[in-house]
Amino acid sequence: MAGFLDRAKEQAQRGLAQGKQKLDEVQVQRGGADLLKKLGSAYYAEQRRGGDPRATQDALRALEQHIATHGEQGLR
User: Fold this and answer.
1) Contact 22, 73 (CB under 8 A)
2) pLDDT in tens, 5-61
3) Cα angle at 10 between 5 and 15, to 5 degrees?
4) pLDDT tens, residue by residue, 51-74
5) Long-range contacts: 28-32, Cβ < 8 Å, 24+?
6) What is the spatial distance between Cα 15 and Cα 34, in angstroms, rounded to a whole number?
7) Distance in angstroms (rounded) separating the CA atoms of residues 22 and 28
8) Would you call 71 helix, strand, or coil by DSSP?
9) Longest dimension (CA), the chain
C-alpha cells in the first residue's frame, strides 16, 4: 500500500509541476501579446494621430527585451 501512495504522490507532484509550467508559459505569452498591442497602438497613434515617436520606440524596446528574455515562443 505504501508503494501505491508513493507513486500517487509522485504523479500528483509531476502534474502540479506540469500545470505550473503551462501557467508560466501562458503568462509569458499574454505578456508578449500585451506588448504587441501596445506597440500597435503606439504606432497607430504616431502615424494617424500625430503621436510621439518615442512611445513607439519605447514599446518596440520593451517587446525586444521580452523576446530576448523569453524567445519567439513568448509571442504565440
Assistant:
1) no
2) 889 889 999 999 999 999 999 999 999 999 999 999 999 999 999 999 999 999 999
3) 125
4) 999 999 999 999 999 999 999 888
5) 28/70, 28/74, 29/73, 29/74, 29/75, 29/76, 31/66, 31/70, 31/74, 32/63, 32/66, 32/67, 32/70, 32/74, 32/75, 32/76
6) 28
7) 10
8) coil
9) 72
C-alpha cell at 22: 503551462
Picking from 40, 42, 30, 41, the residue whose alpha carbon sits closest to that of residue 66 is: 30
Q: Residue 25 is placed in which grid cell?
A: 508559459
